[in-house]
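re: that chain from earlier
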Amino acid sequence: MNSDMFIQHFFNALMLGSLYGLIAIGYTMVYGILRLINFAHGDIFMLGSYFVFFGVTAFHMPWWAAALFSIVATAATGIMVDRVAYRPLREAPRISALISAIGVSFFIENMCLVLFTGVPKPMPRLEALVQVLQFGNIRILPLTLIVPVVSFLLVAGLLWMLYRTKPGLAMRAISKDIETTRLMGVKVNRIIALTFAIGSALAAAAGIMWALRYPQINPFMGVMPGFKAFIAAVFGGIGSVQGAMIGGLILGFMEIMIVAFFPALSGYRDAFAFILLILILFVKPTGLMGEKLEDKI
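^ sequence. v structure.
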């Protein structure tokens, strides 16, 4: 592989890994507080794309306004999912919440299948983002450069919120001891709802950027990215925001570079993520930056 091809694959891997990391943060935030794997998170990611699509095509909104609408609407959807499916089960055995999460995932997918049909729809795109930039023999889309920058800015903003604001302090306190935090006067349900809102908003941002890069949306588009983002969260250390982003980047680079160096293995691209999950569970179950967490009964 020559240097030009390596640079091109490097930026593609950086973009893909940034998206995986952004989605993985939603998994890691919810797990850090509730010890719950929100299996509906990949479908929330998918809804972000559909909200933009209908904002532009049905309501004739400017693209930027449709994107903002999508992020707000998806955050509201995340709050509603928590309110309807998870809050009533706060004191129930954890297996009940896990089954509820799987049920929410199937419900969202099939609801979208009925409402939007299974026919893939073309994602409206800004032409400026898909005009190929030529640097010698390197051809890169502006989107490939913009996605990592936006992702890192969003993560930086989230970390600032977690470590510099009272809601962030409350989130970190709940992740350590939810009962003690409640006794100290923190409105726990509000903070958990805020966690779902932030995680869903980040998933919407990732879904919009994903659909811009791969411009066909369908009701099941969030399944595989959702699985891979979950693997990234486990690999980085589920419960750690920084770990989720690092895990996403490593997974993105692994996928792109293995296929780039060994084209014959391209058909096994998705399998690499699951092999990585098995290996990390064998070698370091808490992930790269994760801490051993006590179970909540």
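The mean pLDDT is 90.
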